[in-house]
Amino acid sequence: MEARVQRRVQRYGWDLAAHDYERLWQAQLGPAQADMLARVGLRAGERVVDVACGTGLVSFAAADVVGAAGGVLGVDISGAMVDAAQRRAEALGVGHASFARMDAESLDLGDAAFDVALCGLGLMYLPDPARAVGEMCRVVRPGGRVGIAVWGERSRCGWSAVFPIVDVEVASDVCPLFFGLGTGDALARVCGGAGLAQVELRRIATTLVYDDGDEACDAAFVGGPVALAWSRFDAATRERVRASYRDAISPWRQADGGYRIPGEFVVVVARRD
After folding, report:
1. Range with the lowest mean pLDDT among 120-124, 137-141, 159-163, 176-180?
2. What is the SS3 assignment for 264?
């Protein structure tokens, strides 16, 4: 898929996800986001940029740590996600967190403007993740830190069947190379190539827990390019892809009708020289 088209698909797909994303994914992504935040070692008064921030799950957690003496800027390609995060900041009175629509591969931010750059579970969706990591490195001051979390190996993510199931219906790859960064030491190599040092990679096994098949399907089809494809499916196609996905995750169905689907995260923390 052409990069320009892929960015547009991401933008509109995540716009569609803004309303349901946290309900379906906040708990599931929590272990990776918490590990990334803990290992990057945020301190009070620091300036943080949260790239591909979505509705601000990582941004608000970072804001709690840096406090009013610091500041957090969350950026995302989805205007709906950014708007939702900004409304929450205003409702909660978190004046030191702000949000802006921005392309992760071309950050409209000054050099060395932040102490820390974060990207929790967003890098896999980008046409050129190496360029985005380079941008994160650029906007962090010398000695500053970068924390990145991505999904791990495809074979360790039981929910990964959603991509080929949707690909069959749209006759294209809805998310090219999604698991590439989670393979081996790929993410660490990308970080090193961007100029980051002291790169430390950790794998985290996780389990995605759903009450029933409907909830598992809702989560699978809610975000990004998959959501855009889903929005264009007619009723028969939706029924077909949900049935295919239920079949794919059937090994992890529990006796009570719930699901416990295996997954894996890769988390890297690094420092700019």
Report:
1. 176-180
2. strand
